[in-house]
């Protein structure tokens, strides 16, 4: 097998083994209900993680997405409470703002040659602050359109449901895979992750690509915010703290190299599912502290970083003896 | 003579001025269609500056560049590439994390229904590489292949994109003989297709093997352009080194061959891809000079003797006991010392004081658990500042504020403080003024009188002749000759560098 598929294969194998272990202990976990809930519960995280995958593939990082998700939720809640505009219009407005916000961060990163870590950290504080400016309370969203959207689902055999937001996440992943592997933008993202100076010499438009990457991440964070507001039917400025770190964890567990240039969007989906599975297992168990999720995720992250290190070592050795 | 329009690229009167230095001074360079043109010169001669002016990486400050008879003024390598000038560098400028096919077609991938047609791209990549006798899996990452294969992929991309001029900047530096042969086959085929190829290398064997014409630069000026067939090797070396063979300075060669017993014995010492195995005996109180052109393996020899690069073959022993030279630390324990060539990068710690710089190596040998007392450090520093006449207002002055010659002496002091038996000096007089020059040479002579064994690497041939008992001559990363006693003359060294006899590979 091509070594570039090792991390992805490892992720999928871990998921299958973990799921088998779960079923061995709780046979009920093998049901379409569990799968449906897995998708629904992790929809917002999954959508944001697709954006994070692109950012990390390019060798960057986006710390702002948790704050942007919260901002989007508060923005929608305030807008729908104070005005009578249709939620679809509000969605469009929110997406426009978050996309522009991402593009702005990308432009600063490129033109001022600032590290993405710092720029998006500032973006994180800014977005979180803006959410607080809009409202410090948790505002419920009672618009009937929300109920309509939440009522849409596809019934799986066995009683499970793929809800609107669960389905949306799958669509976003499909689109993400297509963009990553079948467009020039996608190829440029990988090229950037392989080394920006070389990519420039090879004619990759560095500036445009960087801005587009962060705009895409902003757009998906906005979409994730919409999904989160559908999921919770509320907007709260203290919500989704640390979601960016969960997203980074999902991307890395999904087999993407933190230094950029190597990985797959599909792997991130499996990374999300592994995280969700651990959470579901803890719910089924009932006696375990939910902090076990963090502990297991932490261990998995370590394992994957070691795996990546080992792979790099292996390919280096292979090349030397080629 | 060929008609003028047979030139695909011609540059006239190229000037490039950097702050404080004139890197190129009215250099002319012309490239015919279907020729391999070697561009030669020692470090700092202006080869890479000229190439960068041609490829748009630098803006030139004067002169004209004609491509196919039309004036061009490329602002970037990308623009030069689109005009028809492609460049392949020593360190492959491709993306190791992308597949071979993606590297070949990045930015111009074939599309179908608005999406990249991966199958078509891979098919075209295979077809393109087939012309280069390369049958590899184009869907594998570039990093999975050897540097030679990556080099060919880079050439394939550059030729496919540009197609008029191909500049190869030291493409063979990290290839073995077999890979070089493959690369040369490809270059010859491209020459037949009518490309103008500029070939930069330090390997003279390869120049004679491949090139049709040679242009030599020295100190930013054109020395001359000759047909390779009409230029004997020794004339070429004289052009590069700027020393006419006739005007050899009759340096009084005081040093007689040291006849003490052999103290250090190296047998078959070498490292693959670095320096070929060599035998070397060094006596107590002997200065062994190492001569050769840049890239001939001089510094590599020093590094391997000091353990900076680990030898993968051969043995080293001293008075019947095996030496451990597996790392610089081990070498220091064996009482070895090494003053590297580029003291700014490898030698001095600029912000530390003269005292701290002098105490560094001794402290490293003792280990951090046994610090040298401040009084001892002061004593050491004062002793060597006096002994070597290091001009500094006081020992606490940051070393970066000292002149080059005094920095060099401070580094020498650092190694002398460890009281070494075996000291390697790589270009000890580079970049220092004439007065300090003479002092360093006197110092070298007095050290060997005290019984120390020295290896001195230098491109200043007169200097080597002045203090060496023996001179080892290097070429193409191998020790090719040893001059003893009367043979140690500048003419003898140049002759040995130029001699092509006795070496079959190239």
UniProtKB/TrEMBL annotation, chain A:
It is found in: Cell membrane. The keyword rRNA-binding does not apply. Its main location: membrane. GO terms for molecular function: transmembrane transporter activity. Keywords: Cell membrane, Membrane, Sugar transport, Transmembrane, Transmembrane helix, Transport. The keyword Cell membrane applies. GO terms for cellular component: plasma membrane. InterPro entries: ABC_transp_permease. It is a multi-pass membrane protein. PANTHER family: ABC TRANSPORTER PERMEASE PROTEIN YPHD-RELATED-RELATED (PTHR32196), INNER MEMBRANE ABC TRANSPORTER PERMEASE PROTEIN YJFF (PTHR32196:SF63). This is Simple sugar transport system permease protein. The lineage of its organism: Bacteria, Pseudomonadati, Pseudomonadota, Alphaproteobacteria, Hyphomicrobiales.
From TrEMBL, chain B:
One of its GO terms (cellular component) is plasma membrane. The keyword ATP-binding applies. Keywords: ATP-binding, Cell membrane, Membrane, Nucleotide-binding, Repeat, Sugar transport, Translocase, Transport. It is found in: Cell membrane. GO terms for molecular function: ATP binding; ATP hydrolysis activity. Residues 9-244, 249-501 form the ABC transporter domain. Its main location: membrane. It is a peripheral membrane protein. Belongs to the ABC transporter superfamily. This is Simple sugar transport system ATP-binding protein. It comes from Shinella fusca.
């Amino acid at each position: 097998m091509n070594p570039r598929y090792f991390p992805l294969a490892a992720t999928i194998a871990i998921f299958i083994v973990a799921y088998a272990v779960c079923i061995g202990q709780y046979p009920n976990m093998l049901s379409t209900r569990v799968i449906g809930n897995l998708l629904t519960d992790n929809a917002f995280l999954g959508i944001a993680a697709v954006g994070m995958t692109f950012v990390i593939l390019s060798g960057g990082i986006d710390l702002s997405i948790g704050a942007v998700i919260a901002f989007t939720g508060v923005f929608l809640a305030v807008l729908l409470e104070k005005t009578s505009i249709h939620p679809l219009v509000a969605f469009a407005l929110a997406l426009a703002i978050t996309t522009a916000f991402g593009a702005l961060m990308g432009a600063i990163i490129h033109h001022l040659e600032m590290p993405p870590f710092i720029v998006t950290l500032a973006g994180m504080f800014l977005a979180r602050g803006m959410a607080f400016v809009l409202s410090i309370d948790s505002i419920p969203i009672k618009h009937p359109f929300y109920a309509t959207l939440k009522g849409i689902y596809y019934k799986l055999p066995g009683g499970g449901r793929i809800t609107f937001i669960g389905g949306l996440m799958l669509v976003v992943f499909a689109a993400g895979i297509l963009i990553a592997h079948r467009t020039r933008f996608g190829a440029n993202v990988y090229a950037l992750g392989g080394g920006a100076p070389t990519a420039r010499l090879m004619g990759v438009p560095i500036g445009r690509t960087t801005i587009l990457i962060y705009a895409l991440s902003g757009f998906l964070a906005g979409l994730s915010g919409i999904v989160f507001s559908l999921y919770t039917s509320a907007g709260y400025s203290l919500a989704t703290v640390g979601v960016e770190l969960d997203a980074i964890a999902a991307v890395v567990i999904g087999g993407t190299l933190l230094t950029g240039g190597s990985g797959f969007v599909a792997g991130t989906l499996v990374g999300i599912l592994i995280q969700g599975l651990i959470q579901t297992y803890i719910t089924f168990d009932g006696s375990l502290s939910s902090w076990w999720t963090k502990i297991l995720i932490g261990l998995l992250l370590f394992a994957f970083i070691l795996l990546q290190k080992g792979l790099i070592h292996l390919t280096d050795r292979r090349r030397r003896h080629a | 003579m060929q008609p003028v329009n047979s030139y695909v690229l011609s540059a006239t009167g190229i000037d490039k001025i950097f702050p404080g230095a004139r890197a190129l001074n009215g250099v002319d360079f012309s490239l015919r269609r279907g020729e391999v043109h070697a561009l030669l010169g020692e470090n700092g001669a202006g080869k890479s500056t000229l190439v960068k002016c041609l490829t748009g990486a630098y803006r030139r400050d004067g002169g004209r560049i004609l491509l196919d008879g039309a004036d061009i003024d490329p602002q970037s390598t990308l623009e030069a590439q689109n005009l028809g000038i492609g460049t392949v560098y020593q360190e492959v400028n491709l993306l190791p994390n992308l597949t071979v096919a993606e590297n070949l077609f990045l930015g111009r991938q074939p599309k179908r229904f608005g999406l990249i047609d991966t199958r078509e791209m891979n098919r075209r990549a295979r077809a393109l590489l087939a012309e280069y006798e390369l049958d590899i899996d184009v869907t594998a990452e570039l990093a999975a292949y050897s540097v030679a294969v990556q080099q060919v992929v880079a050439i394939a991309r550059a030729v496919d994109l540009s197609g008029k001029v191909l500049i190869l900047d030291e493409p063979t530096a990290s290839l073995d003989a077999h890979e070089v042969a493959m690369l040369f086959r490809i270059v010859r085929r491209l020459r037949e297709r009518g490309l103008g190829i500029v070939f930069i290398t330090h390997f003279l064997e390869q120049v004679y093997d491949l090139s049709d014409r040679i242009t030599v630069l020295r100190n930013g000026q054109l020395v001359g352009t000759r047909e390779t067939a009409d230029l004997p090797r020794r004339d070429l070396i004289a052009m590069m080194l700027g020393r006419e063979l006739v005007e050899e300075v009759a340096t009084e060669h005081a040093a007689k061959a040291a006849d003490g017993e052999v103290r250090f014995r190296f047998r078959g010492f070498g490292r693959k891809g670095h320096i070929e195995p060599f035998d070397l005996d060094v006596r107590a109180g002997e200065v062994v000079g190492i001569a050769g052109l840049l890239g001939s393996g001089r510094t590599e020899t020093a590094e391997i003797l000091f353990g900076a690069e680990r030898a993968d073959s051969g043995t080293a022993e001293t008075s019947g006991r095996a030496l451990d030279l597996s790392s610089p630390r081990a070498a220091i324990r064996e009482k070895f010392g090494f003053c590297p060539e580029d003291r700014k990068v490898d030698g001095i710690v600029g912000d530390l004081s003269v005292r701290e710089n002098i105490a560094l190596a001794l402290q490293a040998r003792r280990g951090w658990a046994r610090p040298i007392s401040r009084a001892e450090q002061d004593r050491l520093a004062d002793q060597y500042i006096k002994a070597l006449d290091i001009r500094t207002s006081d020992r606490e002055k940051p070393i970066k504020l000292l002149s080059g010659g005094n920095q060099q002496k401070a580094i020498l002091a650092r190694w002398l403080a460890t009281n070494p038996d075996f000291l390697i000096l790589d270009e000890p007089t580079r970049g220092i003024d004439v007065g300090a020059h003479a002092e360093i040479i006197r110092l070298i002579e007095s050290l060997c009188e005290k019984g120390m064994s020295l290896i001195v690497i230098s491109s200043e041939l007169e200097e080597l002749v002045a203090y060496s008992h023996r001179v080892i001559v290097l070429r193409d990363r191998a020790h090719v000759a040893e001059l003893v006693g009367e043979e140690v003359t500048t003419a003898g060294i140049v002759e040995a560098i130029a001699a092509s006899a006795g070496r079959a590979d190239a």
